[in-house]
């Protein structure tokens, strides 16, 4: 019996795992996966499911203060219905935070992925020099904590220590305040682009490397230029990676918290409610309104899930259409 | 830009039809574009790192008075100040980060490995449901989780402890996902079957046969979790109030916050940031060769 003939893929596609084996081993194998998954399930229940359930529960509650709010029994937790939700949805601070983050995402995601794709294509091109060194250099920011990255760039934005201001000053050019108004958006976006480009570049580069060389040889025989090969062959062939990186970038962008929080000590223009998550944090821990914060958290989580599933479905449909062609 | 003058690319004879047809200058220029682009990209990525290396050598006075990229004379002094700051609390933060990231990543790699293996190898009721549930964890914004996690851990009297930062980070949905892909590709069904024929228990098959085959992939998972925990700011920010238990990210942040009122602390923040970058960069360089980057894109070489 040839062993390779029986080899089956039982990967993410969920192909059947069907091997002839004695009943006793099958019986034993039946409980094994559950035992193996027990730690993950326990951790999931304790640190994911329970907190989410608790947040949902809290979001329907509020505190009723009777009298002056002094003494025990003066503050009582009661059922609030949808009150916290209507409050959150009509909250202009939350709306502005959301709009700010959407604007920020519109800068970060295309620029970051555009650069990542560009660098990946350049790394993959023929006759490129210094590829290993530059690859490592561009990937380096991934190893630097977001807080430290924001801190470093924050200092580079500070007029007193920044080389940019020094250069602008010598050139006699106007010196914009990088930590205020419109430039603040660019300043924050730049930190995210700097931190994320290398990681995405590696993801795209890895799938570029998986393209068989014969494909290029055939294209070259047909007289395709490197640019044509990049546009017509490489980019379409790495589109699954592009979809993946796009998806993770959107999720990460919507959750922006560390960078604006770190820049806050350096400028007065970053408010405590700059991003929706910062507002949730402020309401829960700064204002002590855990009920309102829970409702906002649930809304954000729901919107994120909706967006993700919508996106994944759209991506799946497109892939199927392409496969059908 | 003269710094971008890269070595001229010598066209290998006959490697491209273009050179053979007598158009070497154009070909050479085209080959320069990728190299120049990558060098510009490297420059952009290294700029803040170069800045922090130089800024850490400046004394507090020099920081605001000399040109940014001119080295100063205060490096030794800065290190001394950092050591002296609150009896060396900085090193306590580093040790804490090493503990959170090292132990956390080790535990979470174990959980990822065994869960990914189970999800890849066995066919059982509820497999896909369970997998999708775990994956949905990736989509949950950390603050959404952290607020109720804090409240729950407060009820269990665990907030402001090492456990409050360690425990919620053991399960990494992304690690489980990677481990599943890797186990599916690296552990052949025949080997498991052979183990069963020989009468080995499922546990023994996993630990003695499958796990060694999964090691290269698990190194990647470990590195991911290590970086994720080392870089995490939000969870400790919410959970901890005693700064003796702070990881380095939170420690530097509080130092920066105080620095807004006492600019003398800025040099400490900068020197501290430089030293905080070293361990991860060193880890990357050491682990690089064990590291299967293919996993990143979900593609596994067989």
From TrEMBL, chain A:
- What is the recorded membrane topology of this protein? Multi-pass membrane protein
Q: Which CDD domains match?
A: TM_PBP2
**Membrane-crossing residues?**
34-57, 101-124, 136-158, 184-205, 237-257, 290-312
Listed SUPFAM superfamilies: MetI-like (SSF161098)
Indicate whether tRNA processing appears among the record's keywords.
no
What GO CC annotations are associated with the protein?
plasma membrane
| Family from the record | Belongs to the binding-protein-dependent transport system permease family.
Q: Provide the protein name.
A: Multiple sugar transport system permease protein
Organism of this sequence: Streptomyces collinus
Automatic annotation (TrEMBL), chain B:
Record's superkingdom? Answer: Bacteria
Source organism: Streptomyces collinus
**Name the UniProt record assigns to this protein:** Multiple sugar transport system permease protein
Q: What is an annotated GO biological process for this record, any one?
A: transmembrane transport
Q: What are the entry keywords?
A: Cell membrane, Membrane, Sugar transport, Transmembrane, Transmembrane helix, Transport
One Pfam assignment: BPD_transp_1
PROSITE patterns, alphabetically? ABC_TM1
Spell out the SUPFAM superfamilies in the cross-references: MetI-like
Q: Residues annotated as region Disordered?
A: 1-23
Similarity-based family: Belongs to the binding-protein-dependent transport system permease family.
Q: Which InterPro entries match?
A: MetI-like, MetI-like_sf
Report the membrane topology from the UniProt record. Multi-pass membrane protein
Localized where?
Cell membrane
The segment(s) forming the ABC transmembrane type-1 domain are 94-287
> Quick one: where is this thing mainly located?
membrane
Where does it sit, as one GO cellular component term?
plasma membrane
Q: Which PANTHER family match?
A: ABC TRANSPORTER PERMEASE PROTEIN MG189-RELATED, ABC TRANSPORTER PERMEASE PROTEIN MG189-RELATED-RELATED
Where do transmembrane segments lie in this chain? 30-54, 98-122, 129-151, 171-189, 209-230, 264-287
């Amino acid at each position: 019996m040839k062993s390779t003939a029986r080899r089956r893929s039982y990967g993410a596609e969920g192909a059947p795992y069907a091997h002839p084996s004695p009943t006793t081993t099958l019986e034993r194998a039946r409980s094994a996966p559950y035992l193996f998954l027990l730690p993950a399930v326990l951790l999931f229940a304790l640190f994911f499911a329970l907190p989410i359930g608790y947040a949902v529960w809290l979001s329907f509650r509020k505190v009723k203060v009777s009298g002056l709010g002094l003494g025990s029994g003066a503050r009582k937790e009661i059922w609030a219905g949808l009150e916290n939700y209507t409050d959150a949805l009509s909250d202009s601070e939350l709306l502005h935070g959301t709009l700010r983050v959407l604007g920020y995402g519109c800068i970060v995601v295309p620029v970051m992925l555009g650069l990542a794709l560009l660098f990946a294509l350049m790394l993959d091109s023929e006759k490129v020099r210094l590829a290993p060194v530059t690859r490592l250099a561009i990937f380096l920011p991934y190893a630097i904590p977001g807080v430290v990255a924001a801190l470093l760039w924050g200092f580079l934005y500070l007029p007193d220590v920044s080389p940019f201001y020094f250069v602008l000053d010598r050139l006699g050019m106007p010196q914009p305040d990088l930590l205020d108004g419109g430039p603040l958006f660019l300043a924050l976006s730049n930190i995210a682009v700097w931190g994320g480009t290398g990681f995405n570049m590696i993801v795209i580069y890895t799938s570029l490397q998986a393209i068989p060389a014969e494909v290029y040889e055939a294209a070259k025989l047909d007289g395709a230029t490197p640019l044509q090969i990049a546009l017509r062959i490489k980019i379409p062939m790495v589109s699954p990676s592009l979809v993946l990186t796009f998806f993770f970038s959107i999720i990460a962008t919507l959750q922006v918290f560390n960078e604006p929080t770190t820049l806050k000590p350096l400028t007065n223009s970053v408010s405590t409610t700059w991003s929706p998550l910062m507002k949730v944090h402020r309401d829960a821990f700064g204002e002590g309104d855990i009920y309102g914060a829970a409702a906002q958290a649930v809304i954000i989580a729901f919107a994120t899930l909706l967006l993700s599933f919508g996106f994944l479905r759209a991506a799946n449909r497109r892939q199927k259409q392409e496969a059908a062609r | 830009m003269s710094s971008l003058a890269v070595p001229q690319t010598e066209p290998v004879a006959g490697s491209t039809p273009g050179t053979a047809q007598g158009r070497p200058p154009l070909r050479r220029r085209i080959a320069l574009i990728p190299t120049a682009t990558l060098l510009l990209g490297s420059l952009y990525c290294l700029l803040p790192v170069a800045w922090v290396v130089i800024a850490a050598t400046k004394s507090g006075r020099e920081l605001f008075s000399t040109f940014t990229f001119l080295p100063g004379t205060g490096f030794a002094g800065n290190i001394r100040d950092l050591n002296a700051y609150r009896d060396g609390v900085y090193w306590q933060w580093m040790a804490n980060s090493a503990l959170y990231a090292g132990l956390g990543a080790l535990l979470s790699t174990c959980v990822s490995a065994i869960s990914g293996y189970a999800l890849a190898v066995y066919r059982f009721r509820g497999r896909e449901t369970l997998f999708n549930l775990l994956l949905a964890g990736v989509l949950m914004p950390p603050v959404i989780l952290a607020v109720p996690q804090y409240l729950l851990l407060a009820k269990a009297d665990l907030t402001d402890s090492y456990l409050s930062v360690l425990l919620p980070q053991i399960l990494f949905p992304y690690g489980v996902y990677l481990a599943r892909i890797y186990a599916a590709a690296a552990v052949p069904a025949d080997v498991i079957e052979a183990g069963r024929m020989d009468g080995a228990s499922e546990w023994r098959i996993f630990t003695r046969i499958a796990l060694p085959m999964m090691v290269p992939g698990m190194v990647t998972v470990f590195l991911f979790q290590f970086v994720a925990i080392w870089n995490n700011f939000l969870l400790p920010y919410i959970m901890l109030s005693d700064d003796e238990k702070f990881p380095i990210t939170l420690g530097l942040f509080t130092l920066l916050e105080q620095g807004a009122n006492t600019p003398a602390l800025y040099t400490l923040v900068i020197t501290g940031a430089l030293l905080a970058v070293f361990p991860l960069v060193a880890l990357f360089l050491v682990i690089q060769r064990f590291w299967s980057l293919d996993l990143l894109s979900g593609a596994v070489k067989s």
